[in-house]
Amino acid sequence: MSSDLSLPDADTVIKTAKTYGRDLTERVLTTFLQAGIAGIVVTQPLNGSMWYAAGAAGVGASLSLVKGLFARLRSLTNSASLAKGV
Q1: Could you tell me which residue, 37 or 80, shows the higher pLDDT?
Q2: CA atoms of 19 and 13, how far apart (whole Å)
Q3: CA 2: distance to chain centroid?
Q4: What is the pLDDT of residues 39-64, one digit of tens each?
């Protein structure tokens, strides 16, 4: 049996893992901040309920969309990340 499995070299795997880690870290931190801002802005003044929390999630998703669009407009890469080199 011959194996046609072709694996990338170690440098490519490490570089890809670093890029993924940076991208993932940025997205997790910005989503945390966006959700926190959305939760405070929507639920605090309105004495929040389930529907207000759903609205807060919508605000968070909207902020995430705007951030991703801004990142795409800022550079020519195919990434929604603001980190350089991603």
Answers
A1: 37
A2: 10
A3: 41
A4: 788 777 777 776 777 777 788 888 88
What sign does the dihedral 24-15-77-73 (CA atoms) show? positive
Please answer whether residues 63 and 38 qualify as being in contact, where contact means their C-beta atoms are separated by less than 8 angstroms: yes
* CA distances, 47 to each of 42, 44, 62 (Å): 9, 5, 22
Give the chain's length.
86
- Phi/psi of residue 30, nearest 5 degrees: -70, -35
Distance CA 26, CA 3 (A): 38
Look-up of token digits 């011959």: 2
Extract the tokens encoding 25.
């870290």
What are the DSSP calls for 13-50, one per residue? HHHHHHHHHHHHHHHHHHHHHHHHHHHHHHHTTTT--H
